Amino acid sequence: MEVLATLTVLFLLYSLYLLYKSYILKRSTNCYLVDYVCFKPSSDREITTRKCGEIMERNKTLGLAEYKFLLKVLVGSGIGERTYGPRNIIEGREESPTLDDAIQEMDEFLDVTVHDLFVKTNISPSDVDVLVVNISTFCPAPSLASRIVHRYNMRKDVKTYNLSSMGCSATLVAIDVVQNIFKSGKKTIAVVVTSESISPNWYSGNDRSMMLGNCLFRCGGSVMLLTNDPAMRSQSKMRLKCLVRTHIGANDDAFNSAVQKEDDMGRVGVHLSKSLPKSAVHAFSQNLKRLMPKVLPYREMALLVYRIVKQKVVQRNTKLNTLVAQIDFKSGVDHFCLHTGGTAVIDAVGRALRLSEYDVEPARMTLHRWGNTSASSIWYVLGYMEAKKRLKRNDRVLMISFGSGFKCNSCLWEVCRDLGDGDVWEDCIKDYPPQILVNP
Amino acid sequence: MANEPSPQFLSSVRLKYVKLGYQYLVNHIMTLLLIPVIIAISVELARVGPDEILSLVRFLYDLDLIYTMSTVFLVIIAGTVYFMSRPRPVYLVDYACFRPPPNFRVPFSTFLEHARLVPQFDERTVRFQVRILERSGLGEETCLPPANHYIPPTCSMEAARGEAELVIFSAIDELLNKTGMRPKNIDILIVNCSLFSPTPSLSAMVVNKYKLRSNIMSFNLSGMGCSAGLISIDLARDLLQAHGNSNALVLSTEIITPNYYLGKERAMLLPNCLFRMGAAAVLLSNCHRQKNRAKYRLTHVVRTHKGADDAAYKCVFQEQDSEGITGINLSKDLMAIAGDALKSNITTMGPLVLPASEQLLFLFSLIARKVFKAEWKPYIPDFRMAFEHFCIHAGGRAVIDELQKNLQLSDRHVEASRMALHRFGNTSSSSLWYELNYIEAKGRMRKGDRVWMIGFGSGFKCNSAVWKCLKTVQTPVEGPWSTCIHRYPVDVPAMVKVL
Fold first, then answer.
1. Does B308 contact A154 at a Cβ distance shorter than 8 Å?
2. Burial class (CB in 10 A: 0-12, 13-18, 19+), B422
3. Residue-wise DSSP of B78-95
4. B46: Cα separation from own chain's centroid
5. What helix, strand, coil percent values describe chain A, rounded to 5?
6. Mind telling me the catalytic residues of A?
7. Of A28, A149, A150, A409, which to mutate for an interface test with B (greatest number of B Cβ within 10 Å)?
8. Fewer CB in 10 Å around end: N or C, chain B?
9. Interface contact B307-A141, CB threshold 8 A
10. Element (H, E) at A104
11. B77 with A19: Cβ contact below 8 A
């Protein structure tokens, strides 16, 4: 009988041990953002509106009409006087970019930001388990991920992923990769690098639909450190609550809304079609449909269901657009990081979500100070909020971005502690918001 | 007298049997130890009469029912939780390779003629390229995309997109046909193509063509070299662990059109001679339903990145030559670096796949050399004990030779790699799938066989994956080898005279 008793006790202990292990595993599936660093290029790379005009004048294929059109776009874009461009364009070599130019642009970004991230978080490069790099329009061999591994002497079992050409929403795709790897429960440290390469992608022709990229895109980038280790929770800034990705590439118009191709003269540029706004709206609404149940509190959802039922059953009206417009997103979200694709984009999203000027201010100011830095723009917006000391513990931050293909990705973060690190906004946050945004 | 075997032969045979006996003993040690325990228990049970057993049962009843039930429930719950938290199996349902049409063939004579007519190449350059081709191990049926058949090659973005659409859609169409999978049921899409990444990405192109769902998880990997196929498989595995009941479509390809080097730098001309058209589409799943239809199960993926080492990082490097023309520079110590990367990979892979006997031998040899400073050669574990088939990236004849030497493989083991190189050339990340198809087409794939896929890539990376075959593959096999398998294997001479 003692044997039986011992066996039972052993079984019990083993079961308890298994349950404890599963609990630990479940606890380690959270995705924590430990810290992030945005890139501030050196001041000799600043471009004013006047300088932009000069650069565009250099394009001999442009006629007066095109030049006027570009100036109009530039002035009405909401972009300020202190955005940054790549060296080769500033130095006048935009028509013949070399591979070295592109690599130098990336090196300037990587050498500073990745180093700063390791210093800020007190993590050594050899602790990194996963490295995800997304730099959309430039992918040399060996990949930029390998370049970082080489530069920082990372371990030989580091998992690298180099995502490419996924557009301005690619940073959330990279976070998606990382959060899926975290779900295995094994303690992992991941670094995500996001940027855009401007040097090799200057369009030197005169097709209007391809020239907008030249005016709006600026240099910038950001690096993030994420982990699923619960022990690092106390030093983390935010925790990922949900991530929703929508891809409407199945729709031909949406797919063809932003296409990189050759114009009639054989010059490569990104053609933006007229159906771009419509595709963006379509993708955004699809994304919201899936995002709403995850973001809105139960009360708001119940109210929405009640209204839908009332409208469909009582009033026999099947138009749901007005109902969606009545949803108060601010009940579920405190701060909004909108992709700074342009003033039109920010306005449209702000209207759709019924946001006030206070809510869209970070996005507008980021567009003014940094221009459209493509995928990394939402991190600059987050930086603004942090510098303005808006982020308090338990606040929820929603990030929305759009990308070619056509994609709309969004994610919701929960702030872990009161944040106040100014990072790249330190030197100019006092000047924001400025009295006038209109370009003289 | 003539029939008496020589003493050397006898001793080697004896040694072989000793080795076999040792391996059997070590690999089945647990079973061998368990046998006396089972005998002891059964003897004990036989002694104990049936009434003792009955009294045991009655004792259990006497205990408070609550306690017994709660213990039993706890054990059941713990068992369920344990089983549910185990990693989900990843099945390879099927795969399909792009079959290049015969009119894209580039026999040696065509290659020579075109090279001579391209204005950017001078006589020295042409002769160098042909010399490489003669010793490359490629055959006369490898294919280049249409743009490269023009004189000079037209490397426009439109032509590159055309090639991408041709190879990718053909491979996916064939795969969907074979598996009967509906595009709407694909949950994960991963596309990897190293040297061509247009906006919108190739993954978006696939989503558009096949009208995939809007909540698809799509990823486009680029710039990761010839080992990117296994990196995509690794990513698919991670995603399938996080999401149950999902199907993943992995597409590996390399688009040749935009990467034809039109300069004079020798080290950069090598890719012109070796890289050819190819693509492979693979369907992975963790659905229980697919288990019966699946061909393989993924058991291990090991990735090694030697980027921290300078020489390894610079070994395959895209750069611009003195005239500003972009090309890929392959360094002279590529072989040595590949061997080194492979050794690193094996160190991690070995303990996962080698049987206990080999691991112990390796351990003893290591201890003897390090602790007792014995002058023995390092013991190379016999990987033929762990795998039945080997798929080595068909990077070039030299790569395959080097790996054959390092792993002490026979010609039969590397036959698939050599023949794939001969028939299709270096198709980069998809070459491993052409080789797997060769093994199947030859009727060598049996249930329970283990396959080791090894890929190398710029960076320098060495990635390997291990698959276990779930059902014997019946010939004839539909695939890129169906029209020519009867002609293989061929003897590939060290040099084919062209000039």
1. yes
2. buried
3. HHHHHHHTSPPPEEEEEE
4. 53
5. 50, 20, 35
6. 168, 247, 335, 339, 368, 372
7. A150
8. N
9. no
10. helix A99-121
11. yes
CA torsion, ordered B197, B203, B204, B205, to nearest 10 deg: 80
Could you give the CA distance from residue B361 to residue B499 in angstroms, rounded to a whole number? 50
Q: Decide: A149 and A158 in contact? Cβ < 8 Å.
A: yes
Using a CB-CB cut-off of 8 Å, the residues of chain B touching A268 are 157
- ipTM of the modeled complex: 0.91
Whether residue B247 contacts residue B187, with contact meaning beta carbons closer than 8 Å, is answered with yes
**Nearest CA to A248 among B216, B139, B479?**
B216
pLDDT 10s digits, B315-343: 999 988 888 888 899 888 888 899 889 98
What does pTM read for this prediction? 0.90
Q: Which helix (H) or strand (E) holds A81?
A: none
pLDDT tens digits, one per residue of B463-497: 999 999 999 999 888 899 999 999 999 988 888 88
Report helix, strand or coil for A238.
strand
In contact, B407 and B380? CB cutoff 8 Å: yes
Could you read off the pLDDT of A321-379 as tens digits, one per residue?
Answer: 666 666 778 888 999 999 998 888 888 888 888 899 999 999 999 999 999 998 999 99
**Annotated catalytic, B389?**
yes
Chain B (193-212) residues lying within 8 Å, Cβ to Cβ, of chain A: 194-195, 197-205, 207-208, 211-212
Distance from CA of A244 to the nearest CA of B (A): 8
CA–CA dist B142, B492 (Å, integer): 14
Q: Which of B82, B374, B155 is nearest to A17 (CA)?
A: B82
Torsion sign over Cα B6, B9, B12, B16:
negative
